[in-house]
Design a protein that fits this description.
Length: 453
């Protein structure tokens, strides 16, 4: 579904209380009875509750099932989006919402802005909205059957867990020097993070140093293992490449294959260089000749650029002690090998790395175990297992897990047909692969060849 915030400014305090009441009641009810909504909202006027329910239903923030045995409502993704945005707004994290710059199988990526402060302008940030099960429930009948067996807003709870997990891992990784977006805040199924001015690896057609970039990515996988983690979805969709300026300007005189002229080192000029200096002095006069030598006529080379990979997307990150850690580690490595072979026709002559060797690195040399540190943040093993089971049951296997099945299922619209309020954009916009556009801020990418479209 598409985030539409136009109705947000018109919601009253009563409307927010009723929307929160529906969310609260969803924990134990697939359809929250209207009397329970009235009770949880603490509004004493039945007419005020009815008015708020009407307002929220028109904005598609709550919906009602056809042929239900009792009068009640349930929260939509739009309603959950509003509640999360409202929380970010109250905490001073988000001031305005911009364009959607990416859509994935299980998430939406939107540019937002922080509120301006005295002496500090507003900053562009990224809002990631987790939508677990959005595609899977609409395409695979087995997953739809799973939804029927697990009533009570499981999609909402699991999307919240995915956001909690991503924020927790991003926070500990950023604190320990990993190149990841800086996490800013998390509310319900959303994460706010730094906007990285970079391109997805999958959009890059060529790089000047393929071996160097490959080595850096493999080292990133091994460094994660050293800290007790496996990304679980390490591929060209979840790696951004940021191009950074070098620290200095390389001139023609600084090339290693040519001798350095004496005057470049401040020593006495001799030969032709001294003669040229005298001729110039005669033309300009003694008083106008600079003390330092005239610059070479050879044009300056562009400054050297450094390519820095930035790792994103952490809902499938797991401990290196996980029972299936070996499979995920091997998949991460093979994804990079396959991509470099297919895109750059580059194949490393060095075998591996292998999981058995990587596991020996975990905690070596006194390195802290970040899998243990994440548990200390409140994201427990029980929550991780719940999320993992849910993702497995609904067919969420990351971007490396292959495309999502499409078409041919007559029951594809079964769930939506039972709702009075249907968001038709969900199916039209959902796609199997991540479609991230170029960043908002423009870049001069001299050393990268980018694919568009």
């Amino acid at each position: 579904m598409k985030l539409d915030t136009r109705a947000m400014r018109y919601l009253t305090s009563d409307d927010w209380r009723v929307l929160q009441a529906v969310e609260q009641g969803t924990h134990n009810h697939e359809l929250v009875p209207t009397p329970l909504i009235s009770k949880l909202s603490h509004l004493h006027s039945p007419s005020a509750v009815a008015k708020s329910i009407s307002t929220l239903a028109k904005a598609n923030l709550i919906s009602r099932l056809k042929n239900a045995s009792y009068d009640g409502y349930r929260l939509t993704y739009g309603g959950l989006d509003y509640l999360a945005l409202h929380q970010h707004q109250k905490k001073g994290v988000i001031y305005s919402v911009g364009n959607q710059i990416g859509i994935g199988k299980e998430s939406d990526i939107i540019v937002v802005a922080s509120p301006p402060c005295p002496g500090k302008p507003s900053q562009q940030l990224v809002l990631k909205i987790h939508r677990l099960g959005r595609i899977s429930f609409r395409t695979v009948k087995a997953n739809r059957d799973y939804l029927k067996r697990n009533k009570g807003g499981s999609w909402m709870y699991m999307s919240r867990l995915a956001a909690q997990k991503e924020y927790a891992f991003m926070e500990v990784l950023h604190k320990n020097g990993f190149v990841v977006p800086r996490p800013v805040a998390q509310s319900r199924h959303t994460v706010v993070m730094e906007l990285v001015d970079a391109f997805p690896l999958r959009q890059i057609r060529d790089v000047p140093d393929q071996a160097g970039l490959y080595e850096e990515l493999i080292e990133m996988v091994l460094r994660l293992a050293r800290y007790g983690l496996i990304h679980g979805d390490f591929n060209e969709f979840n790696i951004l490449v940021r191009e950074e300026e070098g620290t200095g300007v390389v001139t023609e005189n600084e090339r290693e294959d040519e001798p350095t002229p004496k005057n470049a080192g401040g020593e006495k000029d001799t030969g032709d260089a001294q003669q040229d200096k005298q001729i110039t002095q005669d033309k300009l006069g003694n008083d106008t000749l600079p003390d330092h030598p005239l610059p070479s006529s050879t044009p300056l080379q562009p400054p050297p650029r450094k390519l820095t990979p930035v790792l994103i997307d952490f809902p499938q990150t797991l401990s290196i002690d996980h029972p299936n850690a070996s499979d995920y580690f091997d998949r991460d490595i093979n994804c990079i090998k396959t991509f470099f072979s297919r895109r750059f026709h580059f194949t490393s002559s060095v075998p591996g790395p292998f999981f058995a060797d990587a596991k020996k690195l975990a905690g070596s040399g006194g390195t802290k175990r970040l899998d243990v540190e994440v548990e200390a943040t409140g994201f427990s093993r029980k929550m991780a297992k719940e999320l993992e089971k849910y993702m497995k049951d609904v067919g969420v296997d990351g971007d490396a897990g292959g495309g999502v099945e499409h078409g041919g299922d007559e029951e594809e619209e079964e769930n939506d047909e039972n709702e009075e309020t249907v968001d038709g954009d969900e199916i039209a916009e959902a796609e199997a692969d991540v479609h991230a556009s170029a960043p908002v801020a423009s870049l001069k990418m001299s050393s990268l060849s980018i694919e568009h479209g």
